[in-house]
Amino acid sequence: MIKKTTPIISYFKKQPRLLFLIDGIGALTSALLLIVVLPSFEEIFEMPQPMLYMLACIALFLGSYSFCCFYLSPKNWPPYMLAIAVANFIYCLVTLSLVFYFFEALTSLGITYFIVECFIIGILSGIEIKVGMSEKVG
Hints:
- 83% of the residues lie in helices and 0% in strands.
- With 138 residues, the protein is an all-alpha fold.
- The mean pLDDT is 93.
- It contains six helices and no strands.
- It has helices at residues 7-14, 16-40, 42-45, 49-72, 78-101, 108-137.
- Helix 1 crosses helix 2 (16-40), helix 1 (7-14) crosses helix 6 (108-137) and helix 2 runs antiparallel to helix 6.
């Protein structure tokens, strides 16, 4: 059975460093939003600040990991790609759990922000899994 790879998977399979860089920039952007923007407008989003800071710490850790992978450029990169993909997925589960837990307190804008963030991260994680697995199998 021949597996067809999409152009985006083929592209990142040839340039996995770029995918690590995109992941790192995205994680850093999330962390900055969680540390600077959302706490400044807590009444608009209504997620408690300690939860925002916890998510920001996780995002900073994941971003650091991705930047390290980008900088160090390991030869055997697929396990590192799969690790960050799984970690991103877990981050989304934690985020969505917090949305569920604080659902009554969150505003529509707060719920929308976190769902959109998880949607974007989910797409990125899916690409990372496909890229990591295609290299592993292929």
